[in-house]
């Protein structure tokens, strides 16, 4: 609308990003989403779907876009799930969650489902997390045939950062919410499959920045919650390893921008 020619490079086959691949259809109907996408594209945007910008073979390089276009806008959002911290496991080690067949990160689970992959869950599903993704994973699990779905969170239900309507809908469909527990370990059987999650009981502490309460672990309070499927949704983070141009990052590993929203790289 400001007079520029705009090209969107979208790695997925369908435009919409997290709205399409991260949010289930029962929460965001696809006919409504498609209207929103069409309203953007009908202004004259050139959409190139199924084209990834990155460093892999066949990817379009950011350096090439900077040479071809007058400006490049990075809008890739938070593409990676935050790793589940477990007692005695260093971040430098392989993630145990990714070694267990019936444990998965909620973001990966939902994106694979919306790409058309066949997803299955066991009879008892444990969801670790307290946001929209955790609730979505719980409600999707029920639709996939799970009989017992429980959301496990560090504090209590009143501090879940979602709308009350979402909590009501999840409970109405059969989701249970259990608070004051933090996962500290994964229990596996002789075949290497997850059989339960080891939690520590918490008590509420003081207030954290952002209006949430601290979760303080109680010594000697560990217990195991049996489950057949574990979905982890404790947050997402930005990923910048797809960039082949060195941009300045902040202390959280996100791209550093100035007051105009510009990165350290010209253009």
Sum this structure up briefly.
It is built from six helices and 13 strands.
Count of distinct strands: 13
Share in β-strands: 15-25%
- The gyration radius over C-alpha positions equals 21 Å
Helix content: 10-25%
Shape: globular
Biggest β-sheet: count, sense, barrel?
A: 5 strands, parallel
Mean of pLDDT: 95
Per DSSP, the total helix count is 6
The SS-based structural class is alpha/beta
What does the model show?
The chain is globular. It is of the alpha/beta class. The chain is built from six helices and 13 strands. α4 packs across α5 (132-143). The model has no long low-confidence stretch (mean pLDDT 95). The chain is 20% helix and 24% strand. The strands form four sheets. The protein has a five-stranded parallel β-sheet. Strands 8, 9, 10 and 11 form a four-stranded antiparallel β-sheet that branches. Strands 1-2 form a two-stranded parallel sheet. The two termini are 20 Å apart. It has helices at residues 18-21, 30-41, 62-68, 106-114, 132-143, 164-172; strands spanning 7-10, 46-49, 80-81, 103-105, 124-129, 148-152, 176-178, 181-188, 194-207, 213-217, 223-226, 229-233, 236-237.
């Amino acid at each position: 609308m400001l007079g520029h020619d705009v090209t969107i490079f979208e790695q997925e086959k369908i435009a919409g990003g997290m709205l399409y691949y991260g949010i289930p259809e029962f929460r965001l109907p696809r006919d409504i989403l498609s209207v929103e996408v069409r309203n953007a594209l009908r202004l004259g945007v050139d959409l190139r779907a199924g084209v990834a910008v990155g460093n892999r073979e066949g990817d379009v390089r950011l350096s090439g876009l900077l040479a071809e276009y007058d400006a490049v806008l990075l809008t890739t959002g938070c593409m990676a799930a935050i790793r589940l911290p477990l007692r005695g496991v260093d971040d430098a080690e392989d993630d145990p969650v990714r070694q267990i067949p019936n444990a998965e990160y909620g973001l990966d689970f939902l994106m694979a489902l919306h790409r058309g992959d066949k997803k299955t869950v066991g009879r008892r599903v444990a969801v670790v997390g307290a946001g929209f993704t955790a609730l979505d994973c719980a409600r999707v699990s029920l639709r996939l045939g799970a009989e017992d779905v429980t959301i496990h969170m560090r504090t209590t239900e009143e501090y879940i950062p979602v709308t009350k309507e979402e909590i009501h809908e999840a409970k109405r469909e059969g989701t249970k919410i259990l608070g004051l527990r933090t996962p500290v370990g994964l229990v596996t059987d002789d075949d290497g499959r997850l059989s339960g999650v080891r939690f520590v009981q918490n008590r509420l502490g003081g207030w954290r920045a952002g209006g949430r309460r601290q979760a303080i672990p109680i010594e000697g309070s560990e217990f195991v919650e049996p489950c057949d499927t574990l979905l982890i949704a404790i947050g997402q983070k930005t990923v910048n390893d797809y960039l082949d141009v060195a941009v300045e990052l902040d202390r959280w590993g996100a791209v550093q921008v100035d007051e105009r929203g510009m990165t350290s790289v010209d253009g």
